[in-house]
Design goal:
Layout: E1 4-9, E2 26-29, E3 34-36, H1 39-50, E4 60-61, H2 74-84, E5 86-88, H3 89-93, E6 98-106, E7 112-119, H4 125-135, E8 142-144, E9 147-162
Parallel strand pairs: 3-5, 4-9
Antiparallel strand pairs: 1-2, 1-9, 6-7, 6-9, 8-9
Length: 163
């Protein structure tokens, strides 16, 4: 039976500021998503990145006048994730579904740093969410008083198999 992967990406609400409409989602057919057979490769790639932390003495904001945004907008971000997401074979075999909560900093130049998985669901989904965020191109940086600033950003990614 052909299964579908329903990938719903939610962006948290910042005090009075939401980047997405409530029902934004991306449906990816199984043929559109690669399935990785070697979970150890994903885990080893993620471990390398998880140990890399960029430290800065500059202030990091959570709420700014102009929030950082993915270049091209929300739909472009959905397309990027759809094109790059690999649903891990182990998660598929074990029917693992749920939300992976990630946090990262959008730097002044739009690059992403300090990517962290705050809460995962296992089966390689945590590492896959991490990997896809790491692959993202530079964003439009957040601004405070007209100046680009470092902004902490959270991105929950929901993994759901639809049989």
């Amino acid at each position: 039976m052909k299964s579908r992967l329903l990938l719903i990406i939610l962006i948290p609400l910042f005090i009075g500021c939401s980047l997405f409409k409530k029902n934004d989602s991306v449906i990816v057919e199984e043929g559109d998503v690669a399935v990785v057979e070697d979970i150890n490769q994903i885990e080893s790639d993620a471990e390398e990145v998880l140990t890399t932390n960029y430290q800065s003495d500059e202030e990091t904001f959570v709420l700014v006048e102009q929030q950082p945004s993915y270049v091209g907008g929300v739909d472009a971000m959905f397309e990027f994730i759809k094109a790059n997401l690999i649903y891990p074979a182990k998660a598929r075999e074990l029917s693992i579904e749920g939300v992976v909560f990630a946090r990262f900093i959008v730097e002044k130049d739009g690059s992403l740093s300090n990517i962290k998985i705050l809460r995962g669901i296992g089966g390689g989904c945590d590492e896959e969410a991490f990997r896809v965020i790491k692959l993202m191109p530079n964003w439009n940086p957040g601004k405070q008083k007209g100046n680009a600033v470092r902004v902490e950003f959270s991105l929950p990614i929901k993994f759901k198999l639809d049989n």
